[in-house]
Amino acid sequence: MNIKQLKYVCSIVDLGSFSAAAAHEGVSVQAVSKAMGELEGKLGAPLFERGSAGVRPTAFGRAFCDRARRVLAEWGGLERFVSDGPSGPDGARPFVMGFCAPEFRGVGRFCALIAAVSERVLGREVRVEVVPCEEGLPLLRAGALDAAITVGPVEGEGIVCGRLGTMSSAVLLGVGHPLAGCEVVTLEELSAYPVFRPTDYAHYSEFVVDAYREHGLQSEVYEAPTGEADPEFFSVRNGFTFIVAGGLGWSSAESVMRPLAKGDALAIPICLSTPRGAGVDYVAFRRALASMSLFS
């Protein structure tokens, strides 16, 4: 078993085929197929079900992939720690902060703003990167991240978590959705349509989707990994999803963002986590970030 095999497994699960995984990893399909055959032979169990429409991970394959991601996060942290190295004679290096969220329109602007404000607080260079939610804690522990911004708190041994404030939330609808023409939408109106609950973004699902269900949303829940959601969920079933940091702009040619009516909208908790002993001044961060008008 080696790192390349673990990378191939994760790419196949994410992209749904050996050929797409090979293109993503910059190798031949034969190389990926050979690596998977050798790995499955060593493991003594199939990782994937092969079919004409592509491949799907077996139950064992999905569990293996989950563990492989954690190993890759640790490995990536070690590689980055070595590659960053000291950036000056005093041994200083950039303060690396992870924004644990899926990619979205405006995320680059968000990261740049966070970096600029954080540099004033810390008095050193800050780099803010988008990282998958499930990788935040492993990356903190591996030393690849000095801090992580998350929806809701992160709990783990050796981790200190403080609340930065809250951010506004809204909904994302397909352009053909019956509510797309509304200036604002209510939970009562949304309850007639299914809501997307991604299984690979636990913090978002718990502190956003589940929070709205407790707040009165009666929608049918559709669960799937983000990259594997049925496209017809939005275009045919008129499904919707909640979004955080709506003020940054999410609308596109396929979707529109709509705010929730006053009284229905929830303020979503945003937290900052660091390894214990990092010495980050949360009060200073809260005051600085409040000036951005993104947090309240």
From TrEMBL:
One GO CC term on file: protein-DNA complex
Keywords: DNA-binding, Transcription, Transcription regulation
Keyword DNA-binding appears in the UniProt entry: yes
Record PROSITE patterns: HTH_LYSR
All residue ranges annotated as the HTH lysR-type domain in the record: 1-58
Family named by the database record: Belongs to the LysR transcriptional regulatory family.
Protein name according to UniProt: LysR family transcriptional regulator
PANTHER family associated with the record: HTH-TYPE TRANSCRIPTIONAL REGULATOR CYNR, TRANSCRIPTIONAL DUAL REGULATOR HCAR-RELATED
Any one GO molecular function term: DNA binding
Protein's organism: Candidatus Olsenella pullistercoris
Domain of life of the organism encoding this protein: Bacteria
Keyword Transcription regulation attached: yes
InterPro entries in UniProt: LysR_HTH_N, LysR_subst-bd, WH-like_DNA-bd_sf, WH_DNA-bd_sf
